[in-house]
Input
Amino acid sequence: MNKIKICIVAGARPNFIKIAPIIDAIVNDSSKIITYKLIHTGQHYDKKMSNSFFEELGIPDPDINLNCGGGSQAEQTAKIMVAFEKELILNPVDLVLVVGDVNSTMACAIVAKKLMIKVAHVEAGIRSNDITMPEEINRIITDSITDYFFTTSVEAGENLKVMGIKNEKIFFVGNTMIDTLNKFKLKFKKPEIWDILKLKSQNYFVLTLHRPSNVDENISLNKTLEVIAKNSNNLPVIFPTHPRTKKIISDYNIKFENLIMIDPLSYLEFNYLVNKSKMVITDSGGITEETTVLGIPCLTLRDNTERPETINIGTNELAGTDPVNIKKYLKILFSGNWKKGKTPFLWDGKTAERIIKIIKQIKIK
Ligand code: UD1
Output
């Protein structure tokens, strides 16, 4: 059988979690048909947003770092495209594999396709139907030029069929983020803050916010944080802060007594906190998948989600972006009536193996 050369692209924090098991599956595949190269676009560059994930998840050092961090949406996308095109021309491959929905995903898919290289998209087909999110634009564009679609849910496949994608190009394989979660669950690591604040299981909240719709307006961010701080029964709210959120909070000097801002945590530390928390409040998508599998109540501060299974099957509820709704959900939590979730089908820790098996079977060349 011919060897298949793959280029795996990762750029931002959630990408690293999704590619780790795919690399494991390639390395552990005894047929050795697939060889890979790992390209880091450099979209996330802080040690805490990038290196710590490579170290903890045992991801090999990238073969190339394009160092394309920072800038506006267009600047970042353009920088990544120019740098990735040079790299692909110099070192052509049979398949470019992109994951998720960040700018790096879309930028590299476009470059590959224009160089007539096949594209595989892991986490294809999910849709928030909210075109104001940069991620939704990235999803639609990436999926419009992808050749092989690896999906996390039946619904994602249906969204692709609506776009006219043929059934035989869609592979419902499950969720690689959960492969990583299952593999590392027993290795979650107590963060320093645990002893400093004398935290106790189920006795604190975890909060993450980074979406422009929640954090770019200082007045609404202040209101959101106030409602959470004042309705959390005085429990500590641990808030690992993304660089963009940190900037606005310090610019406007936003403070509440039980709101504890800390630097972004590593993967193992963050999930240690999540796994013992009373509830996670977030505007992330990936975290709603992790809380669903861990069985931790999750409240999403968005008006929509591209991951409806975390609500229909899992522990997640959508509170919207208007802070007035938060109070109602916290009441349900404190009354002990938060719903119990289940794990969605095929989120079983074996998704990356399935992806590699399929890539070996399809005729890429
Ligand atoms: C990106 C993804 C988002 C994902 C999030 C996870 C896009 C469009 N968005 O958003 O889907 O949920 O990552 O964290 O790709 N910055 C730093 N240090 C870093 C990284 C970023 O200071 O290591 C700064 C950037 O310079 C920029 C801001 O943070 O000012 C935002 O970074 P950017 O990569 O543009 O998007 P994210 O908000 O991180």
Q: What stands out?
A: Residues 12-14, 43-46, 49, 69-70, 76, 101-103, 134-135, 210, 242-244, 284 surround uridine-diphosphate-N-acetylglucosamine (CB under 6 Å). Residues 182 and 349 are 6 Å apart (CA to CA). The two ends are 12 Å apart (CA to CA). The mean pLDDT is 96.
